[in-house]
Amino acid sequence: MASSYKSIISLCGMLIFQMASYGASANMQQFQSSWEESEWVVNTTQKHCSLTHKIPRFGHVRFEQYSGQRLKFTLMVEQPLVRDQTAHITSEVPAWWNDGEQRDLGEFSLKKGKMPLSIPRDQALRLYYELEQGMQPVIEFKDWGDGKDIVQVRLLPVRFREALPKFLECTAGLLYLDFEPRAEKRVFFSTNSSSLSRQTRRVLEGIARMYRKKPDFRIVLGGHADERGNPDFNMALSKQRASMVGRYLRSRGVAAKAIEPRFFGESQPEVEKSNNEAWAKNRRVTLWIADR
After folding, report:
1. What is the pTM assigned to this prediction?
2. pLDDT for the residue numbered 26
3. N or C: less crowded end of the chain, CB within 10 Å?
């Protein structure tokens, strides 16, 4: 019997030593807001909506959307990342829940710099939905230094739902696109005109040259008008402007099937003011370069 006790004590000692050794070789650094101070702050402008969560001593995360672009999620850090690596994201069940299980949200690339993580719309929406449901997303990666420690950045859902109405009201007013633009250009027009200026032709020629060299994209055209005049007239004028741009691109070698005209009339001003400078910026066609 004494021999059995000695064996058990010896085994326990070995396990404790192994656990201590593991803890020493792989420490955990955890960053999160406190429950009391956790908040999601909405900031809005005419062309941009953001929903930001501060992480003390580390940085912040943000859902954001610009007019004419899609939602994205970013991680900003106070201490820049010095080398590229991979992050693993999970979604944890809050401690006060009686049931539920952890969800694996996948692996993501971390890039050097102060914004190491930028997640596009589909995955950003998954994080958004997890927080909306009260889950806690956790971003895990190796530390910035020698990589021996594991870093966990936890996003708290506390007050997330409270901020959503204001954020959603802002995004509802943005120009919505059903694609992710690679690039964006703008060309401008005189009052009540769809004629292409010399500067506009230079911009369009550059895009056409890029297409002739590598025709692996489509060009979505968004025609616009300023607020003056009849709304029906402005809608027709914006259509005419987009059509003129499309016609010129076709004349310079861009396939008709690669051009997609859209028109918005006066509904999507670049600048929401009533003066000559604002009107000049609103009389435009936006060219979005997008995947086919």
Report:
1. 0.67
2. 61
3. N
